[in-house]
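Intended use. Records like the one below are meant for learning the mapping from a protein sequence to its folded structure. Do not use them to infer anything beyond what is encoded.
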Amino acid sequence: MVTTVKLQNAFEYSWWVAPIAAVFLIGALVLLLYIGRKVYKLLDNHIRKISPYIKVHMSPQVLAGMKNQYIGRIQRLLNEYQAGVFDKREGYQQLSAIIRSFVHEATGINVETLTAAEVKRMGILKLDKLMEEYYVPEFAEDERGKDKDLLSSCNTAMGVIKSWS
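Structure written out for the chain above:
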């Protein structure tokens, strides 16, 4: 006995499969975007809640001693610069290291690896202005840092350290 079978075309009976698949794909995409946005907001809020200041407990005597130590380092830097041990750019680089080290020790915040813009966003008073003063001569071409005076920058840095509380 011979039997014949007539096969249907693959999607002939289900024209509605494509719209349903499209609705599911759009729904999945919307769900992923919604979850991504929620995660981003949670992380952003968590980051904003983190205080830029880490409370370092030190007595006024310890802080005063630390201030004197860093002011002495800046004065040694000035003496060496005036003696011609290094040029202006290297002086500004050393001044930057001294100031960043002081802030790290005084606050617990590791500003030694941050840019001036990142420090400005943290809102540490006076530090952003001080960093702007030495940032250009430290990193720019020699011509842009020509009008900066290391002596006045060091005096400004010592003033900021003296007034630190």
